[in-house]
User: What shape does this take?
Amino acid sequence: MPLAWPVPGGPQTVEVIKTEEKGSDVNLATYLLADAFRADAEAFVLISNDSDLMEPLRMVRHELGKVVGLLNPQARQSRALLRCKPTFVKQIRRGVASVSQLPNELEDKFGVIARPEAW
Assistant: This one.
């Protein structure tokens, strides 16, 4: 990837390891739209601050006339998402998110399910 501030005469790029999840916003948008078109629910809640979801939120809220709530898990709210005028907007407080987590390990008939250490 290119360096943000390369030093003259130095390397212009660096090798990085990117572990971000790819495609999750596209999948979320697809299911949001499909569920709304099928009228699978009376209201929809989007837990995100990703402005890539602006158009699906706008379509479900204003073209399909559905109730769409936006729950923000980050400190600052995406202005782009707010411009879509969701039905309601709530901030997820860190303390509430912390006590709402499942245990680090769960067990079912198939075995143990463990939370990744990075979480």
In short: The first helix runs from residue 24 to 37. Residues 72 and 91 are 5 Å apart (CA to CA).
